[in-house]
Structures are given as structure tokens and as C-alpha cells.
Amino acid sequence: MKYITSLLVLFSLISSISAAEGRRPNIVVILADDLGYADLGCYGNKRNKTPVLDQLAGEGLRFTDFHANGPMCSPTRAALLTGLYQHRVGIEAALPIDVEGLPQVSETFAERLQKSGYATGIMGKWHLGDLEGSNPIHHGFDTFKGHLTSATDYKSHIDRDGKYDWYHNEKIVRHGRYNTREITDDSVAYIRQHAKEPFLLYVSHSAIHFPWMGPKDEAYREEGKDYNNLTKLGPRGEEEDVTSVVRAMVESLDASTGEIVRVLQEEGLAQNTLVVFTSDNGGYRNYNGLHEGQISDNGVYRGQKTQVYEGGHRIPTIAWWPGKIAAGSTTDETTMTMDLVPTILHLAGIDPDQQQFAYDGLDLRQLLFEQKPLPERKYLFWRISTRSAVRSGEWKLVKYQDKLPQLYNLSTDPSEVNDLSATEAERVNELMKALKEWEADVDRSYAQISGK
Ligand SMILES: [Ca+2]
Description:
This protein is α/β, with parallel strands linked by helices. The protein has two domains: 23-370, Alkaline Phosphatase, subunit A (3-Layer(aba) Sandwich); 380-450, Arylsulfatase, C-terminal domain. Helix content is 29%, strand content 16%. The chain has a ten-stranded mixed beta sheet, sandwiched between helices. Helix 5 (179-193) packs parallel to helix 6. The termini are far apart. Bound molecules: calcium ion (CA). Calcium ion binds at residues 33-34, 72-73, 209, 280-281.
């Protein structure tokens, strides 16, 4: 009898070990808001102290040619959720208040993970619709703690229409803590709660988006008042220097990431979790021409948030998975937010192809784990209303409204200052043709789902 009991103990021990080994990986996506290419120490920043992210880059893979799908919040967030060019689901610019946002017909990667048995949490900013039915819990998340709209007060959580905006799922939750603090605490709690099952945690920060407010600032908005015409300076005067407050915001993101990584380590999950830290668009270098140098650093890259020059969409991105991703590696492969979706689904053992539109993103696993180049991708595209861009290898075409297209060679001219369109007419024609074909394709997709 004793022998049988020992055998049973041994057997259950073996099964629990193999269950742990065979367990599907956890996914933690940390999305910073408006963080510029060179806002972190590991991307050359001298002002902001970001020891945690610098260390993660040293222990993982740092991307030098990673791009946000759009140069503003909602478009990139829609691409992250769907794995598609966001134009296919009709989200091209930052969403206003009182909109449906992400159409229900578009299946998110969270929905697919949830259906396959993952716990799926989002902590922080949604900005993909704020009407009834737009809440993240209707898009594949079992838990949402955060705000639906953008540019809320970091302490009072009042939006630009004077409405309180902080939820647990669909229920209002009142608190006066700093956004990044609350998002971090909720993320840490979610990891602890789901440590024994595979989970997706989407840590969706609002920092360093305006109103520029640091952890020490006091709330400045009141319910029922209209803040639509306020500046981005938050509680500060138009002329005030925002250097120290933006720095505090960047550093709060770094500290938050440190807390999240620490709990993964404490729970013994670090060896079975992919952590990706990225941003939703480039930073503001100035605001209305003021505050130059006080906000973000986009490095050598031209332009800023909202623009389709590199400064608008080239972003810092780090992938970390101890034991799986080679420490201290960097890659200059051209990659984009939407690539994360097929990558994550493959990691979860889900066939990415089974859905309405084929994903526009590429599976990055070989690049992450074997440092192999990506399969050739002839073109990448950006469009936000009348601003468009096409990337093909080292070449980039930029088209602004009805102006003539500009052409840059990013390998010799990363700052996009020498327009070569006059001497490269054939290449301009080729890229313009590719742009038009892509526009027709994505617009057709949206017409198909919207009936418009
Ligand atoms: Ca943003």
C-alpha cells in the first residue's frame, strides 16, 4: 500500500512538472503613451533615468527600427488589438469622446486568447470607444481597470467633457491616485491572481500623454466643467517649463515596469513570460512651437507625434524573456505594432490565419528567439487623414495633402532632410502606385465590415 502511495505521489509530481513545462507562455504587453524614440537611457537619452528599461534591454532584444502603426493613440491601439492596418476597422485618427470605436465585428487578439483559455486583463487606457458596448470586456478582456477616453486628469480622472472616467469593467470606481500608480498596482495584483494559469496582461499606460502631470501634481479638473479648450499643460501655465514633469512621467513608467518584472520573478513566471515594452507613437518635441526640448526626444528622427516623418512613428521597443531571447541583442529589422499579434497567437498555440482578414503583421518569433531576419516585406504603410507614407527597404516616400511626394533614403539620411524625388522619379512612381493600391485595399475592407 505504502509503495502504491509513493508511486501515486511520484506520478502526480511528474504530471505537475510536465504541466508546468508544457504550460503556454504568459504575455505582458506594456504600452507607453507618446514615448519618443530617444526618451529612454538605452536609446541615448541623457536626461531621463530609466535603469529598469535599460536593464531589460541589456537582458533582452532592443529594436532600432520598430514603428507604431500610426502617429497617434487610437490608430496604433486598434492595430495592436487586431493585427491589421487600423484602416481596415475604420480607426485612422485619435478618437473623440462618445464614439463606438473598435467595431464589434473585428476580433481582437485578446478575444482569441480568451477563447483558448487565457486569462486576459487590460489595465489603463483603452481609447478605442467609450459608448455602452465599447468597453474592453466586450473585446476579449475578462478584466478592465482604467479609463476609456484619452487626456484625462491624472489624479481626478475627469475627462475633457468634465466626466469621471475610471472603471472596473463597466462599473465606475472612484479613487484619487496617480494613473501610473493605479495601473501598476492593478497589474501586479492581476499577475499574482493569475500566476497559476496562462494570462495576457495588457498594461496600457496613459503616461506620458498630456495633460503633463507628474505623481506629485494635484488634481486640477472638476466634474461637470468643460476642458476641451484647455492647453496640454494641465495644471501649469502656458509658459511654464515642463522638463521636470515630463521627466517624472517617463521615470514613473520605468519604475512601474520594474514592479511588474519583479512580481513575475517572485511568482517564478519570468522564464515563461514574454514581456514587450513599446510606445503607441513618437513623442512631442514641442507643443505649438513652444517648450522645444522640454518634452520628448525623438533622436535624429524628423518630426513628432501626428506626423508621418520618422519622429512621428519610430518608437523604442524592447522584448524580454530570460532564457528564450538572447541577452543584449539589438535588431534593425523593420517591424511594426501589428506584428505583435500573429507573434503572440503563435506563442499561445493558436493558428493566426483563422479569421476574417488575413493579418497584415508578420510573425516575429524567428527574429525574437533565433535572431533570424524576417521574410521580405516589400512595403509598409502609414496614413492619417491626408498624410501618408510608404517604406520599402531603405526608401521612404512621404506624401502630405496635395503637395508633391517627397522621397528619402533612410540609410544615408535617417533625418529625412534630402528630398531625392526629383532624381528618383521612377521610384516615386512605384511607391505612389503601391500606396494607392494599399489605400484601395484597406478602404475596401472597411467598406465590407461597415456597409459604407
Ligand atoms: Ca499616444
